[in-house]
Each structure stands twice: as structure tokens, then as C-alpha cells.
């Protein structure tokens, strides 16, 4: 007996595609696109990037062979990838105000609220089940930045935007402040046109604004110099030559997005879960440096910030305090904290104290 999928007509598949648009909007997504599984061009780029060692300590980027660029190896039978995007900027959140006040802590805007992985994965699974209610023997699997998937390449192939010189996916009508998620499926939905035009033009603002000069060139990021990598992915000491450039950024960095002219078209999110928690959009460095581990775990529960861990949290803040305007209060806080922390954090406190005393 033939499966239901093989008996669907082009008209029926098109109807399902239209329903998907409506369901995605109801689930809080701003856009949805569908593409096939051919990512050969992006696979070649990834291999070249890895061979240069630009992934640093992110060994998972090189794991799983070519599975990252071959969705059908991740979920056998996959013929389509559904890509969706969801805006994350909370209303009335300043992008640059905290960056300009070096006594304040800057946390990447995506990380101020609830961990997006759980929220978006739940919505994606809901969409998959809605499709299954129409096509019972359809198989699917949902992903949100948690499996070997080239999400920006897939979003580009599905028409959601182009990959900018800062390696971010950019949309002409929404900038780049949005999350991406994918549904891999064996349902042969009609494919959308890939986004082939690059609207960056001659602009190099994102490359020039990077505080640690992490871009080797257009579309090539050396993650080892990227502040997001240094504050989130890197375990161990932060290279001294990169610390000054980190400024007051203690978790992630938005500078290459702040410098992008297309983000004047970015939109606020309607998701209350993405609103700032624990006053982290207005917190001072000294306030956060005073948190003990129990307070850190309590105040960051269910948030992306948990990923960095308490030790690296203190390490990052110590660097930021070293970059803050010199004050007796900062020096006293650093000296008071020093006996209570690990040798790793102590080394960064010593660096900060030396900077404060210059």
C-alpha cells in the first residue's frame, strides 16, 4: 500500500505549504521558507574554515563528518528543510547605551531573557505535528542551534535572507536580530527561491567596528578573536592582547550587528519570554561581580547565560572591570574577591587591578 506522502498531488502539497505559513505566524514566527538538502557550496566553505583553525576550541564544529552540511545524514529520508525565523529584541531595549557606560555590564541582547532553545523547539515541534495531522506518515525532527545543522545556509537557501559580511543572516525588512530554527522532513513541500542577492554592497561597517578585529575578511570570522567566543565558548584564560578590546562585554557581543545599516529595519519581538530578567539590561559590573554562585544560578535559571558557567562569568566581569574607569570602589571589589575565587579568575583580577592602577 503506497504511503500517503507518495500520493499527494502538487496542488495538495502547495495547500500544505500555504497552511504552514499560517501556522508559523500563529506560532510567533515572522517568516518561513522551504529548501532542499543540497548545501555543497556551504560544505566547501565550512571545510576551508575548519582547516584554517578558525573554530578554536569549538571541536563540535568539526565533529560528525559532513553531517552538518548534509541534512539527510542527520535524519535519513529528509528531502526538505523548513527554516523559520523569530525576532528577539525586547521592546524599549537600548542597544548601545550600556556599551557607552563602561561601568555597566553589556550582555548580548539575545541572552537577556529566557533560553530561546526550549521556546522555539516547542513551537517547531508543534508545527511538525500540525503537518502530521494532515499527512500521518510524515516524518520530521526539529532543531534549534543544538545539532550539526548549517542553519544560516539553510535559511539562505530557503529565501529568508542573505549571509552578510559579518556571517550573520540578514533580512532586508528585519535586519539580523532574530533566531533561526529548522524542521527536517521527508515531506516534499514546494521549495522557495533561494536568496541569491547580496545587499551588503561596498559597506564594511561590521568588519571595521569589531573591537577585537575578529574578521579576516568579508564573510570570514576568526572565532578565536570573537568576543562571543571568548566570553561564552572559551574555557581557560582569555588572551591578554584581546582583553582591552572586550570593553564591558561580559556575555556575547552585538557590535557587528550594531554596525550593520540593515538593522535600522529590525523589529521588536512580541514574545514576553524574551524580555530581560534579573534587571540584566541595566546592571552594573560591580553588582554582578558581587553575585555568589547560588545567586548566579538563581538569577540565570532558564537563560542562555547559564552556558558560560560561574567561573567564566567572574572571569569575564573581571576583565570588564579592568576596562572600566579607574575607581577606588572597583579596586576594592577586585581585591576583596581575589581570595575567594579560582586561580583562573585570580589571574584576570590581577590583570584588572594592574589596569586600574595605571
Automatic annotation (TrEMBL):
Catalytic reaction(s) noted: epoxyqueuosine(34) in tRNA + AH2 = queuosine(34) in tRNA + A + H2O
Cofactor detail note: Binds 2 [4Fe-4S] clusters per monomer.
Residue positions binding [4Fe-4S] cluster 1: 200, 203, 206, 260
Ranges where the 4Fe-4S ferredoxin-type domain occurs: 192-220
SUPFAM superfamilies: 4Fe-4S ferredoxins
Annotated positions binding cob(II)alamin: 68, 145, 166, 169, 180, 228, 253-254
UniProt main location, coarse: cytoplasm
Reported cofactor(s): cob(II)alamin; [4Fe-4S] cluster
Pfam families: Fer4_16, QueG_DUF1730
EC number, UniProt record: 1.17.99.6
UniProt pathway: tRNA modification; tRNA-queuosine biosynthesis
UniProt record similarity statement: Belongs to the QueG family.
Subunit structure: Monomer.
Protein name as annotated: Epoxyqueuosine reductase
Taxonomic classification: Bacteria, Pseudomonadati, Pseudomonadota, Gammaproteobacteria, Oceanospirillales
Annotated gene: queG
